[in-house]
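TL;DR need structure tokens for one chain.
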Amino acid sequence: MSTSRHSEQELPRWRRAVLKVGSSLLAANGGGLSTRHALGLAEFIASSHRAGREVVLVSSGAVAAGRALVRAQPEAAHGLAARQALAAIGQTTVVALWQRFFDRPVAQVLLTHDDLRNRRRYLNARATLRELLSLGALPVVNENDTVAVDELKLGDNDNLAAIVAALVDADLLLIATDIDGLYSANPRSDPAAQAIDDVAAVTPQVLAMAGGAGSSVGTGGMLTKLEAATKAATAGIGTVLFNGTDAQAMRLLAADRLRGTRFRAGETRLHARKYWLRHAPLAGGRIRVDAGAARALQSGGASLLPGGIVGVSGEFARGDMVEIETMLNEQASSIARGISQYAAGEVRRIAGRKSAEIEGLLGYSYGETVVHRDDLVATAGANP
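>> reply
TL;DR here they are.
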């Protein structure tokens, strides 16, 4: 029976979620990985799939798994290069652990924070994750610890999960941990600690409640979870923190009930996304479209296809923010801005052509849209 001090509440509505699972839930007592708590989490993922929902899993545990596989060499547990090697050895074990629970394919996706800062690699990562979801696969994301020196020092998959949630336009970030949620103090050392069920915003007072790491296996504590909730909130995504070792909490989660802590998003996801698109710096390039494309973009819900493009000015790279304009009263007028899936030279070659012709014209394709509707915001007559 659960001994949680948190009250039961309704889980926020969601269709696509990122689920972060820490090392403390996967580590076996004797070293390596255990299915003890992974099974309950896998059952939640499976029930979500049956309900038509999509899940991206951010899973730790590679270093712990690798350490168990080279147990005969204890010196391999120390030093940054050794930890990177252990991550490389253990990553396949992490993927195999999750694959055993599912009939659908499990896909390994290794990222660094640099992959998500660089606009071209950001688009590539997002396109890959979206395609995996459309194929019905379960993406299992982890930091690319074998090359990401700074990220491995931080060991911070909580913040990575928040970044991935924004990357895939998730509705919800779920963080599974080995405690019931946020408390006013460390519940392991302070019996008077009060359970916090709902957090409207992560203030300095809330941050002061964060303790250190609670496990010798995991390297993230409550502080990184609060940081992740803050990042998600900025992107218009709510976060829930729950106990992945509590069978009852897992059953409730599958029934859209939460026994844990809910962190609310400050803005709607759409508002946060559109605000960022409207204020992100421009690359200096412009794409000119015909009247039909302009109407479609301004009415909302349409992507920019190559057939509606009549000209390109300036230079920009794939992933750059560009201005989209049309001719009004014989003058160029800005109507939208968005992230271009193609570089300026590529757009010039495919302008006015059908999407099906892109690969034949370029020899490759990044998709049928030049600017996807999720990466586009109308600006004509819009308030800043």
